Amino acid sequence: MKTMLLHCCCGPCALAPLQELINHEIRPTLYFYNPNIYPYGEFKKRYQALKKVAKKYRLKLIKGPYRHQKWLNFLKNHLTEPPQNYPENDQRCQFCFLERLEQTARFAKKKGYQNFTTTLSVNRFKDIDYINQKGRELAQNYKLNYYQFNLNPSEASLFNLRLAQELKLYRQKYCGCEFSLKKESYFIQKLKK
Predict the structure, then answer these.
(1) Which of 2, 11, 114, 151 has the most CB atoms less than 10 A away?
(2) Closest Cα partner for 15 from 128, 190, 157?
């Protein structure tokens, strides 16, 4: 396959998607673009974990800019209510996914990648149908190919957990933004199911 840009939200979430790509003889460039992550110290921890993954698999890693205020402004301009008023996986999250996917597609096009995808599309806590739909639409708009993973999100999550523990990767307890941080119990409840 031609060149692939893999948007990664963190180190642990990249593991199962990477395994699928490598099994298909695809060695992607990892792209860490996540201005949604708050606070900045959390952003650095997640980036360091992804650096370990990149080193293990001998992959190139590109860190996108951390423009948290610009991301917040994007949300506020697209939502009818304040961001904190939306539950997880509602419009706030959808616009967050869209902004990061579009930046990934734009970066892929600018740098000459023919294919892109995201680890978000394998996360059992996310609206993966929405993410894949937007990925395909952006691919069409930017004249790229969007790679859709053939992974079961629950099985991928277990694989990620086991390998992340083995590699001693930092594992976060919330999605990333300050709004999900306040709703951390949402994720803890989902994990117990």
Answers:
(1) 11
(2) 157
CA distance 50 to 47: 5
CB atoms within 10 A of CB 80: 7
**Rounded CA separation 12/154 (Å):** 14
Cα 107 to Cα 29, 124, 191: the distances in Å are 12, 26, 33
**Phi and psi for 21 in degrees, rounded to 5?**
-60, -45
Q: Can you read off the two tokens belonging to residue 127?
A: 């609206």
Q: Is 2 exposed, middle or buried (0-12, 13-18, 19+ CB in 10 A)?
A: exposed
CATH code at 16? 3.40.50.620
Count of structural domains, the chain: 1
Instruction: Check residue 184 and give its pLDDT.
Output: 55
Please check the confidence at residue 188 and state whether its pLDDT lies above 70: no
Q: What's the Rg (C-alpha) of the chain?
A: 16
Q: How confident is the model at residue 181 (pLDDT cuts 50, 70, 90)?
A: confident
Rounded Cα distance, 178 and 13, in Å = 19
User: 24-39 pLDDT, tens per residue?
Assistant: 999 999 999 999 999 9
How does DSSP classify residue 6? E
pLDDT recorded at residue 183? 60
- Residue 99 clears pLDDT 80, i.e. is over it: yes
Predicted TM-score (pTM) of this structure: 0.92
